[in-house]
Amino acid sequence: MSPSGRVVAVSRDDQHRFGKDVVDVVTLLAGLGVAGDAHAGRTVQHRSRVAADPTQPNLRQVHLIAAELFDELAGQGFTVRPGQLGENVTTRGVDLLALPRGSRLHLGADAVVEVTGLRNPCAQIDAFTPGLLKAVTPRDETGAVVRKAGVMGVVLHGGDVRAGDAVRVELPARPHEALQRV
């Protein structure tokens, strides 16, 4: 185990809407995702991916965003609160974007989520707040896109997760593989 942080908020929505409602507790279900969330399932649930191939495994069962992103965005004039970007778990104190693929996030007493990759935000984000897509997908000095809109994962072990719960990171064996979009 290495870095640790805290859960700031948990969110879910049973419909395919852009944002999710902050709730007191979410229940993570092994191999499925967040109970009562439209994106839960063994196979892809995101509309564009279902249209392409509904038999694909769901590598996006849980969406996590670091609250530090909201702080950064506030410095650019954007106001974003937990759940508004569609994440299920908002954290603080863990650099989610720097984790290698296969990192395991221990959330609360029982839940374990394995990080599968980076969220690739779509143009809907600009419908929420114009200019936000560019702010969460800037380009680095080489011109490559830097995806800041959180990470995606699959539930390895279920359990309840709530604001205030600990987030403990378990890194995979080396060599580490950098996160790619999923």
How do the helices and strands line up, and which of them pair or pack?
Elements (H helix, E strand, L loop, with lengths): L3 E9 L8 E3 L1 E5 L3 E2 L12 H6 L9 E5 H8 L14 E4 L11 E4 L3 E8 L5 H5 L3 H5 L14 E7 L1 E4 L3 E5 L12
Parallel strand pairs: 5-6
Antiparallel strand pairs: 1-2, 1-6, 1-11, 3-4, 3-10, 5-9, 7-8, 7-11, 8-9
Describe this structure in words.
The protein has four helices and eleven strands; from the N terminus they run E-E-E-E-H-E-H-E-E-E-H-H-E-E-E. It has 182 residues and is of the alpha+beta class. The protein has a single domain (4-170), classed as Beta Barrel (M1 Pyruvate Kinase, Domain 3). The strands form two sheets. The chain has a seven-stranded mixed barrel with strand order 1-6-5-9-8-7-11. It is globular.
Descriptive terms for the model:
182 residues; 11 strands; MoCF_Sase_C; MOSC domain-containing protein; Pyrv_Knase-like_insert_dom_sf; M1 Pyruvate Kinase, Domain 3; 7-stranded mixed beta barrel; MOSC_domain; globular; 4 helices; alpha+beta
Summarize the structure.
The protein is an alpha+beta fold.
CATH top level label: Mainly Beta
Distance between the termini: 25 Å
Within the largest sheet, what's the order of strands? 1-6-5-9-8-7-11
How many domains? Answer: 1
Indicate the CATH architecture: Beta Barrel
Apparent shape: globular
Count of distinct strands: 11
CATH superfamily: PK beta-barrel domain-like
Would you give the CATH topology?
M1 Pyruvate Kinase, Domain 3
Percent of residues in β-strands: 25-35%
What is the oligomeric state here?
single chain
The residue ranges in which pLDDT falls below 50 over 5 or more consecutive positions are: none
The helix/strand series, from N terminus to C terminus, equals EEEEHEHEEEHHEEE
The major beta sheet can be summarized as: 7 strands, mixed, barrel
Question: Could you tell me the radius of gyration in angstroms?
Answer: 15 Å
Please count the helical segments. Answer: 4
Protein name: MOSC domain-containing protein
InterPro entries: MoCF_Sase_C (IPR005302), MOSC_domain (IPR052716), Pyrv_Knase-like_insert_dom_sf (IPR011037)
Organism: Kineococcus glutinatus
Pfam families: MOSC
